[in-house]
Specification:
Layout: H1 7-21, H2 30-48, H3 52-81, H4 83-97, H5 100-115, H6 119-127, H7 139-186, H8 198-225, H9 230-240, H10 250-260, E1 264-270, E2 273-280, H11 289-317
Antiparallel strand pairs: 1-2
Helix pairs in contact: 1-4, 2-3, 2-7, 3-4, 3-7, 3-8, 4-7, 5-6, 5-7, 5-11, 6-7, 7-8, 7-10, 7-11, 8-9, 8-10, 8-11, 9-10
């Protein structure tokens, strides 16, 4: 097998490109196309299928199926043209499915504003990455929002797409991104999307079931390597992993809270109403800018461990 045909080269190249360059926003992005497809299908599906929930199922099947088929066909066609072309297409699709660097950069804007003493700017920066209202938050609550976002999205923005990339190549990673995009666009519990987005939200829960729990375990293993509390991560993961409205998000948040020695969850304001969420972790340490630095190390450490474990498995089976 040549380098351009090696899945190892694709994975390592994609991870390195993501770590160094982040999301290639200046280039055509599959997620943008997926989002446009989801938007364009809503009116015709609602019109053609009277049962709104069934229309939502059709949206899910079409979006994920077309995304996977187009990615797989593009890779196949490129390899038929030339091995180097196939490698480049595979590498690009794998790269754009990952989001560690982008998650770091976007969340770092919040802490950078705090470092500059600009609390209003920090609130605005946080509002771009969380759903809660941020206009009245103090610094510890801003930090909590940033830490929760990095911890949760380590699961569905970093480990999950990498998991599917390792499992089934770039086409499966793109299919996962389609599921994730569907949930972010139609997976709301409001009048418009409660029924139409039901299938997308449930399938997103299913697709993230294993990656979320894997993320929690990776965080436990990564914690001592990152100068954090591995025993605490394991204890809080087991105790509080299900203290979340999402069936999945609590696992990475609990592992992170335990590793960092902080309490996450609690009261958030949405559309003018206070929503009390279950707490996760123990407040052994205050929420501070150092807490944010710890969760970022935990994110990168978890990603590195998953890649290392996969490389070891590949080497073992290729002996």
């Amino acid at each position: 097998m040549t380098l351009v045909e090696s899945p190892v080269a694709v994975v390592l190249g994609a991870v390195l490109l993501d770590l160094v360059l982040g999301d290639p926003r200046a280039l055509p992005h599959p997620v943008v196309g997926i989002g446009e497809m989801i938007s364009s299908l809503e009116k015709p599906l609602r019109r053609m299928i009277p049962n709104v929930r069934v229309a939502g199922v059709a949206l899910l099947v079409i979006t994920v199926g077309v995304s996977y088929a187009l990615a797989a066909s593009l890779i196949y066609a490129a390899y038929q043209l030339a091995p180097a072309a196939g490698f480049v297409v595979s590498l690009y699709l794998a790269w754009v499915s990952l989001a560690a660097r982008s998650l770091h950069l976007e969340s770092a804007k919040v802490v950078r504003a705090l470092q500059e003493g600009d609390l209003p700017a920090a609130r605005v920066a946080l509002s771009y990455i969380v759903g809660r209202e941020t206009a009245e938050l103090d610094e510890p609550e801003i930090i909590r929002g940033a830490v929760e976002t990095v911890a949760e999205n380590t699961g569905d923005g970093v480990i999950a797409p990498l998991f599917y990339l390792l499992l089934g190549g770039p086409a499966l990673a793109i299919a996962y991104k389609a599921v994730n995009t569907l949930d972010s666009m139609v997976g709301y519990k409001n009048d418009r999307y409660l029924e139409y987005g039901w299938a997308s939200a449930r399938f997103d829960d299913l697709a993230n079931y294993v990656p979320a729990r894997l993320t929690g375990l990776l965080m436990v293993l990564a914690a001592p390597l990152c100068g954090l509390d591995g025993d605490g991560a394991w204890r809080i993961l087991r105790r509080d992993g299900r203290n979340h409205s999402s069936p999945n998000s609590g696992f990475p948040e609990a592992a992170a809270a335990g590793a960092l020695g902080v309490r996450l969850g609690g009261a958030n304001r949405y559309f003018g109403k206070i929503v009390e969420k279950p707490t996760i972790g123990d407040a052994l340490l205050p929420l501070s800018q150092a807490t944010y630095g710890g969760v970022v190390r935990l994110m990168y450490g978890s990603e590195a461990l998953l890649v290392a474990a996969w490389l070891a498995t590949v080497a073992l089976f290729n002996r």
